[in-house]
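Q: What would this chain look like folded?
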Amino acid sequence: MTPILLVEDDRMLGDAVAAALRQDGWEVARAEDAGAAKTALIDHAFAAVLLDLGLPRGSGLDVLNALRQRYDTTPVLIVTARDQLSDRVRGLDAGADDYIVKPFQTDELCARLRAVVRRSQGRVAPVLSYRDVVLDPAARLVTRGGQAVKLGVHEYRTLMALMERQGRVVARDALESLVYGGDGTIESNTIAVYIHQLRRKLGEDFITTVHGFGYRVGEVE
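A: My prediction, written as structure tokens:
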């Protein structure tokens, strides 16, 4: 799996963001200053960059400019403070794909990150598909072989969480958080029940159980 590069010099915030990204199914590489970020971007390929603007040894804009001057189209999501409108404008003009303002909710961060990665892959409309199953979030419609499949709300959320992370293993507790928003009162086997129901409707081998880790839709990336 291609990782995300998180460029953030605040170690406590960086740890929290990295944990949220991993729960969302991403691998995360870290850089804590502009120099380390530039080096990482030269040496490695990333699915996207989450880029703070205020960094030691340079600025986030320096990192972005260096990236775009090499005609590197890796998606960049800028993290900025609420009162830095001029920085947001400069970042977008320098080639950033989007920005998010501190303080932010991790759900919004992950959604914006998925969106910039999706656009970079030419998927402007977030229609998700695997085999003959298609999930259209805009229409809230799931079809199998062109025929609509009726899903309950939590079955739908479970399926979307897995298909958005196609090829990646999603842990059961991560699925619980994505489906229920972190509500800790649900029964321990609830996700397993939804997985069973989805297999019955979409095919027994549509969702793979990775024992000791979680569940996966699609082949390993």
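The CA atoms of residues 83 and 172 lie 38 Å apart.
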